[in-house]
Write a structure and sequence with these properties.
Chain lengths: 360, 306
């Protein structure tokens, strides 16, 4: 007979082994899925995980890793702070969109002036947009006890409609021949978030993501606020007794996650995406939830997980064009990853005991 | 603007249809939450139901078989959630999100071959002369069987929770799983059954969108209805009758904004389209004071060793 026994201490080793096991299990079951779709499973997995890094065209794909990874890491770092404390902001996609709209609007307001101050101003506006959008669920939770999960998610749909509205109206390119979408920021030097080192994929968003990782690491390990976050997540009552102010914690965690998501949106729209269009967002806000969990809500883990998920995006694109693998298959693949992670996590808190239970 | 373009009879008949997916999904979630489990995967189960139902209806030519397949599809997906939260004791919020992300991707994968196809239509129930009553006939007696099934299910869940032993046990598990366990009830088994019921209901709701309300298949077509259903359970204070009221309220708003779009109101389409979500938030704010109605064990993980 097999039964579960609670470990006296959560296993640290297993806490880090679980994501690795989850990736392996996802590769196996993902391979089976691809086989069911009539694709060669080994070739598919190799295309997704090997080709972008070490394949013949790796020089082209490696920079993409930074471009796709940066928004994921940036958003996931913010989410992880809240998730640690039991504050569930799952509307990062909406905050990402609002950040992009605010930032792009700030830049476009000055078109065609050229100035070094325009891009920094856009960064501030983008961060503000994301922060503002996250403050709605935060304030509602603090003031009225409203469930922040539902409110933040509803606001994603509101933001998507708002995005459609501005790309057809307010921010529409007056010289765009009637096509929806704003002016292309890549052609507006002062607002362009270009590569810092040509051909490396390194743009300001990557720098911001790395700073966010360091900031989160220092906050969580060295700062009183980081301690408050960790205690609140593990033992809310103990946190109250130790003088943690839950209201401020909610506002801080939601605010930071919104701010970082807004930044990610701004860097994306001013750089790789280039313009505000109805569907410029590709779901980074939701994938970042997987990144946060896969990274164990730990800054360094998130950095690694962000890289891995970026790899699945890039490899997925390659597999799509070379093997005809459907785009949705990659989405399933990413979803599976979270499933397996949650399942394997059992062994962090519990261990298996074989044999009959003792009579006490 | 021409408001007279909105036919009141068609409007009311339309919002009964618009409310039905919400009734199914929210009712299923209500039962799940009364058993003490918070399943945030409603959206994922709905979209899986939408495609399973659509595919089965197209392949077999029978919409009723489609609905059956949708219920099975939703329940099977919910078993994944049950496995994660009841067996491997994973966090319910994270597992629910995983279910939604996975469901959205998987449905897109399943649905590739079904884009742009028209599903077979489910005929209206034949009420004979009742259908010919002016106003009431087209409003109340000109719908398909599934819509009436939804209403019957509200009554059944209400009566089941209130008057039956099974309902009492379910509520006991939801209020205090430790006490229920001490009394010898199988907490995990009861919750798993509740989760499967919720999955089947969400699947039916999804299929109602893809087979009757729209009717066609597009990726991500549930567009947040599953999340609104979750909000509706809070709105209803976990009570079936209030849930019905809420579903009609939201169905009415959805239908009204669609009709206003059609009537060419001066408000831009995008702002009308965001109204159901904004109103959901407002309703949540107004009603979040009533927290005591929530099942006491909601969202807490149960393991016999604790």
């Amino acid at each position: 007979m097999v039964r579960l026994e609670k470990r006296p201490q959560p296993s640290r080793a297993f806490s880090w082994a679980a994501p690795v096991l989850a990736v392996v299990a996802t590769m196996i079951f993902g391979g089976l899925l691809f086989a069911a779709l009539g694709k060669d499973p080994v070739a598919s997995i190799e295309t997704i995980f090997w080709e972008p890094l070490f394949g013949d065209f790796a020089f082209y794909y490696r920079p993409q890793l930074l471009i796709k990874g940066a928004p994921l890491v940036l958003i996931a770092i913010g989410l992880s702070l809240g998730f640690k404390a039991g504050i569930w902001n799952i509307g990062a996609e909406g905050q990402y969109i609002m950040g992009a709209i605010f930032g792009a609007a700030a830049g476009l307001a000055f078109y065609p002036e050229q100035s070094v101050f325009i891009f920094p101003l856009m960064v501030v506006a983008g961060a503000f947009g994301g922060w503002l959008w996250a403050m709605i669920p935060a304030v509602l939770r603090v003031k009225f006890g409203t469930n922040e999960i539902l409110v933040s998610l509803m606001l994603v749909y509101v933001a998507e409609q708002f995005l459609a509205s501005v790309s057809l109206g307010l921010l529409k390119n007056p010289e765009g021949f009637g096509f929806p979408g704003s002016r292309n920021l890549q052609q507006y030097a002062s607002a362009h978030n270009g590569e810092l080192i040509a051909g490396s994929g390194m743009h300001w968003g990557v720098v911001a993501a790395l700073i966010a990782v360091i900031f989160a690491y220092v906050l969580l390990t060295r700062h009183r606020l980081g301690f408050a976050i960790r205690v609140t997540g593990q033992a809310p009552k103990a946190a109250r007794f130790s003088g943690v102010n839950p209201t401020r914690l909610v506002l801080f965690c939601m605010g930071v996650s919104g701010l970082l998501a807004g930044l990610a949106g701004l860097f994306e729209v001013a750089g790789p995406a280039g313009q505000i269009t109805i569907d410029f967002n590709v779901g980074y806000g939701f994938t970042a939830i997987i990144v946060a969990f896969l990274g164990r809500l730990h800054p360094v883990g998130i950095l690694l997980a962000g890289g891995l998920l970026a790899l699945t995006y890039i490899g997925g694109d390659i597999a799509q064009s070379q093997l005809g693998l459907p785009a949705a298959a990659i989405q399933v693949f990413q979803g599976m990853l979270l499933f397996f992670l949650l399942a394997f996590d059992l062994f962090t808190q519990f261990r298996l005991r074989f044999g009959q239970a003792e009579v006490i | 603007m021409d408001l007279s373009a909105i036919n009141p009879v068609l409007f009311v008949a339309g919002f009964l249809v618009a409310a039905t997916p919400l009734i199914f999904a929210a009712l299923g979630e209500l039962v799940v939450e009364r058993s003490g489990v918070l399943n945030l995967g409603v959206e994922g189960m709905m979209i899986i139901g939408a495609i399973c139902g659509f595919a089965a209806a197209v392949e077999t030519g029978s919409p009723l078989l489609g609905f059956f397949a949708a219920a099975v599809g939703g329940a099977v997906l919910s078993l994944l959630f049950a496995f994660l939260t009841q067996i491997t004791l994973a966090n319910q919020v994270a597992s629910g999100l995983a279910l939604t992300l996975f469901g959205l991707g998987f449905s897109a994968l399943l649905g590739q071959r079904y884009v742009g196809i028209k599903p077979p239509r489910l005929p209206e129930v034949n009420f004979g002369p009742l259908h010919d009553i002016p106003v009431l006939g087209p409003v109340l007696f000109s719908h398909d069987i599934i819509l009436y099934l939804g209403l019957a299910l509200v009554v059944a869940v209400w009566a089941g929770l209130k008057f039956t032993r099974a309902g009492l046990v379910l509520r006991a598990v939801g209020e205090s799983h430790d006490a229920a366990h001490a009394l010898g009830y199988k907490v995990v088994r009861i919750r798993t059954l509740a989760i499967m019921f919720g999955g089947a209901c969400a699947g039916l709701g999804g299929a109602y969108i893809s087979l009757i309300r729209v009717p066609q298949w597009t990726e991500g077509m549930t567009a947040g209805v599953g999340w609104i259903a979750l909000a509706l359970v809070v709105f209803a204070s976990w009570k079936p009758w209030r849930l019905l009221l809420g579903a009609y309220l939201f169905g009415g708003i959805t239908q009204l904004q669609l009709n206003l779009q059609g009537a060419g109101v001066a408000i831009p389409v995008e702002y009308l389209a965001m109204s159901p979500y904004v109103i959901t938030i407002l309703v949540l704010v107004v009603l979040s004071a009533d927290k005591n109605a929530a099942p006491a064990s909601l969202g807490r993980t149960f393991h016999a060793s604790n």
